[in-house]
Protein backbone atom coordinates (compact mmCIF):
# COMPACT_ATOMS: atom_id res chain seq x y z
CA UNK A 1 0.00 0.00 0.00
CA UNK A 2 1.29 3.44 -0.93
CA UNK A 3 1.93 5.74 2.00
CA UNK A 4 -0.21 8.81 1.77
CA UNK A 5 1.83 11.80 0.69
CA UNK A 6 0.58 15.26 1.39
CA UNK A 7 0.96 17.93 -1.27
CA UNK A 8 -0.25 20.59 1.13
CA UNK A 9 1.98 23.65 0.95
CA UNK A 10 3.88 22.84 4.10
CA UNK A 11 7.48 23.01 5.19
CA UNK A 12 7.71 19.27 4.52
CA UNK A 13 6.79 19.68 0.87
CA UNK A 14 9.23 22.51 0.51
CA UNK A 15 12.01 20.41 2.06
CA UNK A 16 11.22 17.51 -0.24
CA UNK A 17 11.50 19.76 -3.26
CA UNK A 18 14.74 21.21 -1.97
CA UNK A 19 16.16 17.72 -1.55
CA UNK A 20 15.11 16.81 -5.08
CA UNK A 21 16.69 19.98 -6.39
CA UNK A 22 19.98 19.18 -4.69
CA UNK A 23 19.92 15.59 -5.93
CA UNK A 24 19.29 16.79 -9.48
CA UNK A 25 22.04 19.38 -9.16
CA UNK A 26 24.44 16.80 -7.77
CA UNK A 27 24.03 14.42 -10.69
CA UNK A 28 24.39 17.25 -13.18
CA UNK A 29 27.37 18.75 -11.38
CA UNK A 30 29.20 15.41 -11.15
CA UNK A 31 28.80 14.88 -14.88
CA UNK A 32 29.95 18.44 -15.59
CA UNK A 33 33.03 18.13 -13.41
CA UNK A 34 33.94 14.76 -14.86
CA UNK A 35 33.80 16.41 -18.28
CA UNK A 36 35.55 19.62 -17.27
CA UNK A 37 38.48 17.89 -15.59
CA UNK A 38 38.96 15.39 -18.38
CA UNK A 39 42.35 15.47 -20.07
CA UNK A 40 40.72 14.42 -23.32
CA UNK A 41 38.11 16.85 -24.57
CA UNK A 42 36.81 15.00 -27.60
CA UNK A 43 33.07 14.83 -27.97
CA UNK A 44 33.09 11.04 -27.78
CA UNK A 45 34.91 10.95 -24.46
CA UNK A 46 32.83 13.75 -22.96
CA UNK A 47 29.62 12.00 -23.98
CA UNK A 48 30.74 8.86 -22.20
CA UNK A 49 31.74 10.83 -19.11
CA UNK A 50 28.28 12.39 -18.98
CA UNK A 51 26.54 9.03 -19.23
CA UNK A 52 24.70 7.28 -16.44
CA UNK A 53 27.11 4.31 -16.36
CA UNK A 54 29.99 6.77 -15.97
CA UNK A 55 28.36 8.14 -12.83
CA UNK A 56 28.01 4.59 -11.49
CA UNK A 57 31.58 3.79 -12.44
CA UNK A 58 32.81 6.88 -10.61
CA UNK A 59 30.67 6.00 -7.61
CA UNK A 60 32.25 2.55 -7.46
CA UNK A 61 35.78 3.97 -7.29
CA UNK A 62 34.66 6.56 -4.75
CA UNK A 63 33.15 3.85 -2.57
CA UNK A 64 36.26 1.69 -2.73
CA UNK A 65 38.25 4.63 -1.39
CA UNK A 66 35.66 5.95 1.03
CA UNK A 67 34.99 2.51 2.47
CA UNK A 68 38.69 2.06 3.03
CA UNK A 69 39.08 -0.99 0.82
CA UNK A 70 42.83 -0.72 0.49
CA UNK A 71 44.67 -3.88 1.44
CA UNK A 72 44.72 -7.29 -0.19
CA UNK A 73 42.79 -8.54 2.81
CA UNK A 74 40.08 -5.94 2.23
CA UNK A 75 39.78 -6.94 -1.40
CA UNK A 76 39.67 -10.63 -0.50
CA UNK A 77 36.77 -9.85 1.81
CA UNK A 78 35.00 -7.91 -0.94
CA UNK A 79 35.53 -10.79 -3.38
CA UNK A 80 34.11 -13.24 -0.89
CA UNK A 81 31.03 -11.10 -0.25
CA UNK A 82 30.66 -10.59 -3.99
CA UNK A 83 30.76 -14.35 -4.59
CA UNK A 84 28.16 -14.96 -1.89
CA UNK A 85 25.95 -12.30 -3.44
CA UNK A 86 26.30 -13.78 -6.94
CA UNK A 87 25.52 -17.28 -5.69
CA UNK A 88 22.44 -15.86 -3.95
CA UNK A 89 21.40 -14.15 -7.16
CA UNK A 90 21.68 -17.37 -9.16
CA UNK A 91 19.04 -18.81 -6.87
CA UNK A 92 16.67 -15.90 -7.38
CA UNK A 93 15.28 -16.26 -10.89
CA UNK A 94 12.92 -13.31 -10.55
CA UNK A 95 15.68 -10.96 -9.49
CA UNK A 96 17.92 -12.22 -12.27
CA UNK A 97 15.16 -11.41 -14.71
CA UNK A 98 14.66 -7.96 -13.19
CA UNK A 99 18.35 -7.18 -13.47
CA UNK A 100 18.51 -8.62 -16.98
CA UNK A 101 21.08 -11.23 -16.03
CA UNK A 102 21.52 -14.78 -17.19
CA UNK A 103 22.88 -17.65 -15.16
CA UNK A 104 25.85 -18.09 -17.47
CA UNK A 105 26.87 -14.48 -17.06
CA UNK A 106 26.57 -14.61 -13.29
CA UNK A 107 28.63 -17.77 -13.08
CA UNK A 108 31.33 -16.08 -15.12
CA UNK A 109 31.35 -13.25 -12.59
CA UNK A 110 32.24 -15.47 -9.66
CA UNK A 111 35.84 -15.27 -8.54
CA UNK A 112 37.17 -18.77 -8.86
CA UNK A 113 40.32 -20.57 -7.80
CA UNK A 114 41.78 -19.36 -11.09
CA UNK A 115 40.74 -15.73 -11.03
CA UNK A 116 40.84 -14.90 -7.32
CA UNK A 117 44.59 -15.36 -6.83
CA UNK A 118 45.29 -13.07 -9.78
CA UNK A 119 42.89 -10.44 -8.43
CA UNK A 120 44.67 -10.45 -5.08
CA UNK A 121 48.14 -10.68 -6.52
CA UNK A 122 47.61 -7.65 -8.75
CA UNK A 123 46.22 -5.66 -5.85
CA UNK A 124 49.05 -6.62 -3.52
CA UNK A 125 51.73 -5.84 -6.05
CA UNK A 126 50.13 -2.55 -6.96
CA UNK A 127 47.49 -1.42 -4.48
CA UNK A 128 44.37 -0.32 -6.30
CA UNK A 129 45.26 -2.13 -9.53
CA UNK A 130 42.67 -4.49 -10.84
CA UNK A 131 42.43 -6.57 -13.95
CA UNK A 132 39.77 -5.09 -16.24
CA UNK A 133 37.96 -8.41 -16.47
CA UNK A 134 37.85 -8.61 -12.67
CA UNK A 135 36.53 -5.07 -12.51
CA UNK A 136 33.75 -6.17 -14.85
CA UNK A 137 33.06 -9.10 -12.51
CA UNK A 138 32.59 -6.76 -9.56
CA UNK A 139 30.28 -4.56 -11.63
CA UNK A 140 28.41 -7.42 -13.26
CA UNK A 141 24.96 -6.47 -12.00
CA UNK A 142 25.40 -2.83 -12.91
CA UNK A 143 26.86 -2.95 -16.40
CA UNK A 144 28.00 -5.32 -19.12
CA UNK A 145 31.61 -6.30 -19.62
CA UNK A 146 31.63 -4.29 -22.81
CA UNK A 147 30.35 -1.13 -21.13
CA UNK A 148 32.87 -1.61 -18.36
CA UNK A 149 35.60 -1.81 -20.98
CA UNK A 150 34.33 1.28 -22.80
CA UNK A 151 34.22 3.21 -19.55
CA UNK A 152 37.70 2.07 -18.55
CA UNK A 153 39.03 3.23 -21.92
CA UNK A 154 37.29 6.60 -21.70
CA UNK A 155 38.27 7.15 -18.08
CA UNK A 156 41.86 6.34 -18.99
CA UNK A 157 41.79 8.87 -21.82
CA UNK A 158 40.28 11.38 -19.43
CA UNK A 159 43.18 10.81 -17.05
CA UNK A 160 41.05 9.21 -14.35
CA UNK A 161 42.42 5.69 -14.73
CA UNK A 162 45.81 4.29 -15.54
CA UNK A 163 45.34 1.41 -17.95
CA UNK A 164 48.13 -0.84 -19.05
CA UNK A 165 48.61 -4.24 -20.59
CA UNK A 166 50.54 -6.78 -18.56
CA UNK A 167 53.06 -9.25 -19.91
CA UNK A 168 50.31 -11.87 -19.71
CA UNK A 169 47.99 -9.85 -21.93
CA UNK A 170 45.62 -8.75 -19.18
CA UNK A 171 44.70 -5.11 -18.84
CA UNK A 172 45.29 -3.62 -15.43
CA UNK A 173 43.41 -0.50 -14.42
CA UNK A 174 43.97 1.66 -11.40
CA UNK A 175 42.52 4.96 -10.36
CA UNK A 176 44.61 8.11 -10.50
CA UNK A 177 42.55 9.43 -7.60
CA UNK A 178 40.89 12.28 -9.46
CA UNK A 179 37.52 10.68 -9.99
CA UNK A 180 37.11 9.96 -6.27
CA UNK A 181 37.89 13.62 -5.54
CA UNK A 182 35.31 14.80 -8.06
CA UNK A 183 32.63 12.43 -6.86
CA UNK A 184 33.35 13.08 -3.19
CA UNK A 185 33.40 16.85 -3.53
CA UNK A 186 30.06 16.84 -5.34
CA UNK A 187 28.59 14.60 -2.67
CA UNK A 188 29.83 16.84 0.10
CA UNK A 189 28.51 19.95 -1.59
CA UNK A 190 25.16 18.27 -1.97
CA UNK A 191 25.07 17.48 1.71
CA UNK A 192 26.12 21.00 2.66
CA UNK A 193 23.53 22.49 0.35
CA UNK A 194 20.82 20.44 1.99
CA UNK A 195 22.10 21.38 5.41
CA UNK A 196 22.30 25.02 4.42
CA UNK A 197 18.76 25.01 3.13
CA UNK A 198 17.57 23.41 6.32
CA UNK A 199 19.24 26.08 8.39
CA UNK A 200 17.96 28.99 6.28
CA UNK B 1 34.16 6.34 -28.05
CA UNK B 2 37.79 5.51 -27.92
CA UNK B 3 40.70 4.38 -29.94
CA UNK B 4 39.91 0.78 -29.01
CA UNK B 5 36.32 1.20 -30.02
CA UNK B 6 37.22 2.98 -33.19
CA UNK B 7 39.33 0.02 -34.12
CA UNK B 8 36.46 -2.32 -33.56
CA UNK B 9 33.55 -0.42 -34.99
CA UNK B 10 32.47 0.42 -38.45
CA UNK B 11 35.39 0.94 -40.65
CA UNK B 12 33.77 2.08 -43.87
CA UNK B 13 36.05 4.35 -45.73
CA UNK B 14 38.93 3.78 -43.40
CA UNK B 15 42.39 3.10 -44.64
CA UNK B 16 42.75 -0.27 -43.02
CA UNK B 17 42.93 -3.30 -45.27
CA UNK B 18 39.58 -4.36 -46.57
CA UNK B 19 38.26 -7.84 -46.89
CA UNK B 20 35.29 -9.13 -48.73
CA UNK B 21 32.60 -10.82 -46.78
CA UNK B 22 30.82 -13.67 -48.32
CA UNK B 23 30.17 -17.29 -47.75
CA UNK B 24 27.60 -18.04 -50.38
CA UNK B 25 25.35 -20.31 -48.44
CA UNK B 26 22.19 -18.25 -48.60
CA UNK B 27 20.34 -20.88 -50.57
CA UNK B 28 20.86 -23.32 -47.71
CA UNK B 29 19.02 -21.17 -45.21
CA UNK B 30 15.37 -21.44 -44.36
CA UNK B 31 13.46 -18.33 -45.51
CA UNK B 32 11.38 -18.18 -42.32
CA UNK B 33 14.43 -18.13 -40.12
CA UNK B 34 16.06 -15.56 -42.32
CA UNK B 35 13.00 -13.34 -42.14
CA UNK B 36 13.01 -13.53 -38.35
CA UNK B 37 16.65 -12.56 -38.26
CA UNK B 38 16.02 -9.64 -40.57
CA UNK B 39 13.15 -8.53 -38.35
CA UNK B 40 15.47 -8.68 -35.37
CA UNK B 41 18.04 -6.54 -37.08
CA UNK B 42 15.40 -4.07 -38.23
CA UNK B 43 14.09 -3.89 -34.68
CA UNK B 44 17.57 -3.25 -33.42
CA UNK B 45 18.15 -0.56 -36.02
CA UNK B 46 14.84 1.07 -35.17
CA UNK B 47 15.83 1.21 -31.55
CA UNK B 48 19.12 2.90 -32.18
CA UNK B 49 17.29 5.44 -34.26
CA UNK B 50 18.62 4.53 -37.66
CA UNK B 51 15.65 2.61 -38.88
CA UNK B 52 14.98 4.67 -42.01
CA UNK B 53 18.46 4.01 -43.28
CA UNK B 54 18.18 0.32 -42.68
CA UNK B 55 14.64 0.05 -43.98
CA UNK B 56 15.70 1.81 -47.13
CA UNK B 57 18.37 -0.83 -47.52
CA UNK B 58 15.67 -3.47 -47.44
CA UNK B 59 13.59 -1.49 -49.89
CA UNK B 60 16.35 -1.35 -52.45
CA UNK B 61 16.11 -3.61 -55.48
CA UNK B 62 17.49 -7.05 -54.84
CA UNK B 63 20.33 -6.49 -57.28
CA UNK B 64 21.41 -3.50 -55.31
CA UNK B 65 21.11 -5.35 -52.00
CA UNK B 66 23.09 -8.24 -53.37
CA UNK B 67 25.93 -6.02 -54.50
CA UNK B 68 28.59 -7.00 -52.03
CA UNK B 69 29.29 -4.05 -49.78
CA UNK B 70 32.80 -3.38 -48.67
CA UNK B 71 33.62 -4.60 -45.19
CA UNK B 72 36.80 -3.67 -43.44
CA UNK B 73 38.75 -6.06 -41.27
CA UNK B 74 37.30 -4.36 -38.21
CA UNK B 75 33.78 -4.79 -39.60
CA UNK B 76 34.56 -8.45 -39.97
CA UNK B 77 35.61 -8.63 -36.33
CA UNK B 78 32.32 -7.04 -35.23
CA UNK B 79 30.34 -9.42 -37.45
CA UNK B 80 32.14 -12.47 -36.14
CA UNK B 81 31.62 -11.31 -32.60
CA UNK B 82 27.86 -10.94 -32.93
CA UNK B 83 25.79 -14.01 -33.61
CA UNK B 84 22.91 -12.09 -35.15
CA UNK B 85 25.11 -10.29 -37.65
CA UNK B 86 26.98 -13.48 -38.40
CA UNK B 87 23.80 -15.32 -39.14
CA UNK B 88 22.56 -12.78 -41.67
CA UNK B 89 25.69 -11.52 -43.38
CA UNK B 90 25.70 -14.11 -46.14
CA UNK B 91 22.06 -13.60 -46.96
CA UNK B 92 21.92 -9.86 -46.77
CA UNK B 93 25.31 -8.19 -46.52
CA UNK B 94 23.80 -4.82 -47.43
CA UNK B 95 21.57 -4.92 -44.37
CA UNK B 96 24.52 -5.82 -42.17
CA UNK B 97 26.46 -2.95 -43.74
CA UNK B 98 23.63 -0.61 -42.80
CA UNK B 99 23.52 -1.91 -39.25
CA UNK B 100 27.29 -1.45 -38.94
CA UNK B 101 26.93 2.09 -40.25
CA UNK B 102 24.11 2.69 -37.79
CA UNK B 103 26.33 1.48 -34.97
CA UNK B 104 28.99 3.87 -36.13
CA UNK B 105 26.56 6.76 -36.23
CA UNK B 106 25.31 5.86 -32.78
CA UNK B 107 28.89 6.12 -31.59
CA UNK B 108 29.26 9.47 -33.26
CA UNK B 109 26.17 10.85 -31.60
CA UNK B 110 26.37 9.04 -28.34
CA UNK B 111 23.97 10.26 -25.75
CA UNK B 112 23.28 9.04 -22.29
CA UNK B 113 20.54 6.77 -23.48
CA UNK B 114 22.85 5.16 -26.00
CA UNK B 115 24.85 3.82 -23.15
CA UNK B 116 21.88 2.51 -21.27
CA UNK B 117 20.18 -0.74 -21.70
CA UNK B 118 16.48 -0.08 -21.62
CA UNK B 119 14.79 -0.88 -24.86
CA UNK B 120 17.01 -2.89 -27.19
CA UNK B 121 17.42 -6.24 -25.51
CA UNK B 122 13.82 -6.34 -24.38
CA UNK B 123 12.50 -5.06 -27.67
CA UNK B 124 14.59 -7.58 -29.53
CA UNK B 125 13.38 -10.27 -27.21
CA UNK B 126 9.83 -9.29 -27.96
CA UNK B 127 10.45 -9.60 -31.68
CA UNK B 128 11.38 -13.22 -31.42
CA UNK B 129 12.24 -15.33 -28.45
CA UNK B 130 15.24 -14.33 -26.44
CA UNK B 131 18.12 -12.16 -27.47
CA UNK B 132 21.39 -13.53 -26.20
CA UNK B 133 23.46 -10.56 -25.11
CA UNK B 134 26.55 -12.64 -24.54
CA UNK B 135 26.52 -13.68 -28.19
CA UNK B 136 25.85 -10.16 -29.46
CA UNK B 137 28.11 -7.88 -27.45
CA UNK B 138 28.02 -5.00 -29.90
CA UNK B 139 24.26 -5.05 -30.25
CA UNK B 140 23.93 -5.08 -26.49
CA UNK B 141 25.36 -1.63 -26.38
CA UNK B 142 22.51 0.14 -24.72
CA UNK B 143 23.34 -0.60 -21.20
CA UNK B 144 21.00 -1.37 -18.43
CA UNK B 145 20.99 0.81 -15.40
CA UNK B 146 19.29 -0.64 -12.38
CA UNK B 147 18.81 1.28 -9.14
CA UNK B 148 18.35 -2.07 -7.43
CA UNK B 149 21.71 -3.32 -8.67
CA UNK B 150 23.42 -0.08 -7.67
CA UNK B 151 21.91 -0.31 -4.21
CA UNK B 152 23.12 -3.91 -3.91
CA UNK B 153 26.61 -2.86 -4.94
CA UNK B 154 26.56 -0.06 -2.36
CA UNK B 155 25.58 -2.54 0.34
CA UNK B 156 28.28 -5.03 -0.71
CA UNK B 157 30.94 -2.36 -0.43
CA UNK B 158 29.51 -1.30 2.90
CA UNK B 159 29.77 -4.87 4.19
CA UNK B 160 33.30 -5.15 2.89
CA UNK B 161 34.26 -1.82 4.41
CA UNK B 162 37.43 -1.86 6.45
CA UNK B 163 36.24 1.20 8.33
CA UNK B 164 34.17 1.10 11.45
CA UNK B 165 30.77 2.40 10.62
CA UNK B 166 28.92 4.75 12.85
CA UNK B 167 25.39 3.67 13.60
CA UNK B 168 22.87 5.40 11.38
CA UNK B 169 21.14 8.25 13.12
Descriptive report:
The complex is a heterodimer of chains A (200) and B (169). Chain A is built from ten helices and three strands. With 200 residues, chain A is mainly alpha-helical. In chain A, β2 (161-165) and β3 form a beta hairpin. The mean pLDDT of chain A is 94. The relative contact order of chain B is 0.17. Chain B has a two-stranded antiparallel sheet. With 169 residues, chain B is mostly helical. Chain B is 54% helix and 2% strand.
Features:
heterodimer; A: 200 residues; mainly alpha; three-stranded antiparallel sheet; 3 strands; 67% helix; 6% strand; B: 169 residues; two-stranded antiparallel ribbon; 9 helices; 2 strands; 54% helix; 2% strand; elongated
Question: Quick recap of the structure?
Answer:
The complex is a heterodimer of chains A (200) and B (169). Chain A is mainly α. Chain A is 67% helix and 6% strand.
Helical run tally of chain B: 9
Instruction: Name the shape of chain B in a single word.
Output: elongated
Strand order of the largest sheet of chain A: 1-3-2
**Order of secondary-structure elements of chain B:** HEHHHEHHHHH
- Uncertain runs of chain B are 1-28, 49-57, 107-129
Assembly form of the protein: heterodimer
SSE topology sketch:
The complex is a heterodimer of chains A (200) and B (169).
Chain A: H1 11-36, H2 43-49, H3 52-66, H4 72-90, H5 93-99, H6 103-108, H7 115-125, E1 130-131, H8 132-138, H9 145-158, E2 161-165, E3 171-175, H10 178-199
Antiparallel strand pairs in A: 1-3, 2-3
Helix pairs in contact in A: 1-10, 3-10, 4-7, 8-9
Chain B: H1 3-8, E1 18-19, H2 31-47, H3 51-59, H4 62-66, E2 71-72, H5 73-81, H6 83-88, H7 93-108, H8 119-127, H9 147-160
Antiparallel strand pairs in B: 1-2
Helix pairs in contact in B: 2-3, 2-7, 2-8, 3-7
Amino acid sequence: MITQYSFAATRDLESDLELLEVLRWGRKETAERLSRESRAQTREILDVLRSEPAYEFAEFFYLLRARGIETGQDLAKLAEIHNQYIVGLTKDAEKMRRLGLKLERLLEAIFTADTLPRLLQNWRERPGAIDQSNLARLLVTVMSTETCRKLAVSFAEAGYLARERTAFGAILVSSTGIVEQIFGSCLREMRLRIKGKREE
Amino acid sequence: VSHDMAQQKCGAGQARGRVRVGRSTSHQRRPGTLLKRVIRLLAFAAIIGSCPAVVSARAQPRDSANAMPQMSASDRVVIERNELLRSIVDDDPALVRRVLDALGKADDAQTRSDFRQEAPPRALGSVEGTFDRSKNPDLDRLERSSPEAMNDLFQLLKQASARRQRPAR
